[in-house]
Amino acid sequence: MTAGTDDTGLWRIVAVAASMMAVSMGLRQCFGLFLAPSVADLGASAGAFGFAVALHNLVWGVSQPFVGSLGDRFGPRPVLLACGLLYFVGLLLFAVSRDPLVGLDLGLGVLTGLGIAGTGFGVLLGAVSRAAPPERRGVLLGLVSGIGSTGVLLLAPLGEGLIASAGWRTAALAFVGICGAMVALSALIGGHASPAVSAPAGLTREGTSEALRAALSHPGFVAMSVAFFACGFQLMFITTHLPRFLGLCGLSPALGAQALGVIGVCNAVGSYAFGLLGQRHSPKRLLAGIYVIRTAAIVTYLAVPVSEGSTLLFAAVMGATWLGVVPLVSALIGRLFGLAHFGLLFGIAFLGHQLGGFMGAWMGGLVLDATGRYDAAWWALVGVGTAAALLQGPMDDRPRPASTNPRGAAA
Q: What pTM was estimated for this model as a whole?
């Protein structure tokens, strides 16, 4: 399937990708709801739970380039099926195990991390990118990212309600069933998308090793990937620790689920909007603007009394910029290197994001265990976000010159 795919085939890919992303991303964004009840039942600490979520992010990041490369080579369907099953088994272990090492580290950490590497951004957005014509690609990537963010809107209140009424293990088993439905849906994605839609003028379709060397030698790609660290650092801290932070502030645990739902709604609008803006304006400047807005929102949230109103407003601002980075980063990768190795190169960039997610989730638990508060962790988010904005703004976003291609002339 190529960029010339008819609209019926294109919209099927878009619908399946958006639905799968809604489930895979929605499930992981609800992990924080399980922090307090699961650690109490398992006899673990907040730091242990934070480490498991951090491990999830690290495994996701490290495996994403390899999983993305498999998607480039074999198409999305087999990768989605295999990784969806790993996600399913990981959630099942978390739901039934009495051993923190098995339930948290192996289940919630390693297996769901491998699972979402195939059912999250890289493989699904690669399928959409190859199927979409260039003039519609940015909008459709934003649409998939936006719809994909709405899963938390349904899953967060479902999880919170089940935890309150039937216990956290029942809620986790319900999530296992939802994940199973996602695995079945993956069979509908379609066959292998040909990489023939690959490179912009002046670039060639090189092999995997050459593409990797070209990306790592491009200063703009490296700067974008390093700045992407801040995105993961900020967002994984919030999804993992915001419900617990609100409890420490004397607010209802249900507010955490409400905030995640607001993030999901605003994320849907923001992701689509940034995908559209990325086709009309500089993606690198829009990315820098996202980091500035998020960081300013955190400072403002800390400066005023934490209340239900301020929390929901904060969630709305963060949600509007939550996944808006994804269509922009995807657009920059296509601009710099084309689409033949999109899964691999998105995975390399996303590794920076996931290293940030690892540090953000784990750091929050360590700070809470050490001080009983989250103050130092919030200010760490401010510092990292400021550095990312300063790095992203002047990024070199010029395509790699053809002269650097080890195989010579353009395709």
A: 0.73
**Residues 331, 341: Cα–Cα separation, whole Å:** 13
**175 close to 23: Cβ distance less than 8 angstroms:** no
DSSP 312-378: HHHHHHHHHTSSTHHHHHHHHHHHHH-STTHHHHHHHHHHHHHHHHHHHHHHHHHHHHHHSS-HHHH
The widest CA-to-CA distance across the chain, in whole angstroms, is 65
The Cα–Cα gap between 202 and 219 comes to 18
Domain boundaries, the chain: 7-404
CB atoms near residue 200 (< 10 Å): 15
Cβ-count burial of 23 within 10 angstroms (0-12 exposed, 13-18 middle, 19+ buried)? buried
Amino acid at 88: F
> What does pLDDT average to in each consecutive run of 10 residues of the chain (411 residues)?
60 90 89 88 86 86 88 88 96 94 93 93 84 80 80 86 93 96 88 44 60 87 91 87 88 82 82 84 92 95 93 93 85 84 86 86 88 93 94 85 41 30
Q: Which residues contact 89 (CB under 8 A, 6 or more apart)?
A: 107, 111
What is the 8-class DSSP label of residue 194?
Answer: P
Residues in Cβ contact with 281 at an 8 Å cutoff, skipping those fewer than 6 apart = none
CATH of 7-404, one of 1.20.1250.20, 1.10.3720.10, 3.40.50.11220, 3.40.50.1460: 1.20.1250.20
d(CA 34, CA 233): 20
Tokens of 134: 């260039």
Rounded-to-integer distance, Cα 36 and Cα 40, Å: 6
